[in-house]
Write a structure and sequence with these properties.
CATH class of the largest domain: Alpha Beta
CATH architecture of the largest domain: 2-Layer Sandwich
Order of helices and strands: HHEEHEEHHHEHHEE
Distance between the termini: 40 Å
Number of helices: 8
Structural class: alpha+beta
Radius of gyration: 21 Å
CATH superfamily of the largest domain: GAF domain
Number of domains: 2
CATH topology of the largest domain: Beta-Lactamase
């Protein structure tokens, strides 16, 4: 392990928690792991709704690809010198795993430091996720949706940059920088609120949110834009 002073470690933790984007947060976590422990490689897997680990991001290229990630997790976890750390939700549900490989393997005190680092990461991730969702429905809130929409528009602009030539346009035609957005309106929703009260109207929103969450992919983004005549905007990549 690299010998770092307390101010350096505090600086690294501050850098780790400087992001609102989960993808950037994961990349920052891997950089912190690299600076602290100098691993051969480190990989993050997410646990999907089918309880199958899916590759998310790695410190080194070529360790695993998205196409073989379902099988790669068990193979990488059994490699010599690998230490596994669970990524937990604030409800103590396992969201994924960080696999760290190094020769020699992480020592006991290094694993203890990594566990403490993960406590900071898990706590910040819980705060970040809580700040991104609508309290009633569990869908994304408007601010998070706007941020993701800006990112999607940026990808579309880059895909069609004039100075990128025909290669960029061909990629765009194959789906790169291509997104779909739709709006769903609840018919006669105002009459539900007027006749039965807003508590019943909230129940309707919760039920619809669950239907959307079970229908769309995990990577699709859904947000409630209005509470009274509610509609849903869904951004699909």
């Amino acid at each position: 392990m690299n010998t770092l002073s307390s101010p350096q470690i505090v600086h690294m933790i501050a850098a780790l928690t400087a992001h609102r984007d989960v993808d950037l947060l994961e990349a920052s976590l891997l950089k912190t792991v690299a600076d602290l422990f100098g691993p051969g490689w480190a990989v993050i897997f997410h646990i999907g709704e089918d309880d199958v680990p899916r590759f998310s991001i790695s410190l080194r290229d070529g360790v695993v690809s998205k196409t073989d990630s379902a099988e790669a997790f068990s193979q990488l976890a059994s490699v010599a010198g690998v230490t596994s750390f669970p990524i937990m939700s604030n409800a103590r549900k396992v969201l994924g795993y960080l696999l760290v490989q190094r020769a020699p393997p992480l020592a006991f005190d290094e694993q203890a430091l990594m566990t403490d680092l993960f406590r900071v990461y898990d706590n910040y991730l819980a705060v970040l996720r809580d700040s991104q969702v609508d309290r009633l429905t569990g869908l994304l809130n408007r601010r998070t949706f706007d941020d993701q929409l800006d990112r999607a528009l940026g990808l579309i602009r880059r895909a069609y940059q004039e100075d990128a030539g025909t290669r960029s346009k061909r990629k765009a035609g194959e789906g790169a920088g291509c997104f779909f957005m739709g709006e769903i309106d609840i018919d006669h929703f105002k009459s539900v609120n007027d006749r039965f009260g807003h508590q019943y109207g909230d129940e309707v929103l919760v039920i619809l949110a669950r239907i959307l969450q079970s229908t769309f992919r995990k990577t699709d983004l859904c947000v409630p834009l209005r509470r009274r005549g509610v509609c849903r905007d869904c951004l699909r990549g």
